Amino acid sequence: MIEKERKSVDYLVINELKKQSLTISLAESCTGGKIASLMTRKSGASSYFKGSLVCYSKGSKVNILNISKDLIESKGSVSKEVAREMAISAKLLFNSNIAISVTGNAGPTRGDLKKKIGTVFIGIAKYSKVMVHKFSFSGDRDKIIKNAVEQSFKLIYSDLIKE
After folding, report:
1. Which domain covers residue 128, as residue numbers?
2. Number of domains in the chain
3. Higher pLDDT, 128 or 6
4. Could you count the other beta carbons within 10 Å of the beta carbon of residue 23?
5. Which residues contact 7 (CB under 8 A, 6 or more apart)?
6. Are 123 and 86 a contacting pair, CB within 8 Å?
7. CA 65/CA 20 separation, integer angstroms
């Protein structure tokens, strides 16, 4: 059990954040706080974890993350543009070095602008750079969410180790 835990990507991310003395924050939508839960499961999380917001509804994205209502209406909550703004807002709100955002359609029904079920956008804001990655996951709601969480950790780990 401990050996498996050491190899998990969330454990590797946490170790890299500590090693590099970096802080992270999150803005989650379709993952519903699952990334934050994994980030904080180890003692000492306050040394690298600044906080998280679960902004599931359009209203919370507008009112809490200050995402433009016009942007959401024109591009949809599940879009590259909204994922980008979510990451930027989380980084600013929590004053962290890095922020991750996740927005997507996990199903079982289609949401705004009829985005295909399994479409997920993951944004990473680090320093003054923002990257957004689009994924098309398959499976049921739980599998899509699980894949979005795993991919978020893989992306941030890859970004952390390439420096």
Report:
1. 2-161
2. 1
3. 128
4. 19
5. none
6. yes
7. 27
CATH number at residue 116: 3.90.950.20
Phi, psi of 29 (to 5 degrees): -120, -85
Q: What is the identity of the amino acid at 88?
A: I
Is pLDDT larger for residue 112 or for residue 91?
91
Q: Report the C-alpha gap between 124 and 155 in whole angstroms.
A: 8
CA nearest 52: which of 81, 25, 83?
25
3-state secondary structure of 25: strand
Interhelix angle 141-161/9-19, nearest 10 degrees: 30
Structure tokens at 156: 């941030």
Whole-angstrom Cα Rg for the chain: 15
The verdict on whether omega for the bond into residue 108 sits within 30 degrees of 0, i.e. cis, is yes
SS3 state of residue 52: strand
Question: Cα(102)–Cα(122) distance, rounded to whole angstroms?
Answer: 5
Predicted TM-score (pTM) of the model is 0.92
**Read out DSSP for 66-115?**
---HHHHHHH-SSSHHHHHHHHHHHHHHHT-SEEEEEEE--SSS--GGGP
Torsion, Cα 7 10 13 18, to 10 degrees, reads -100
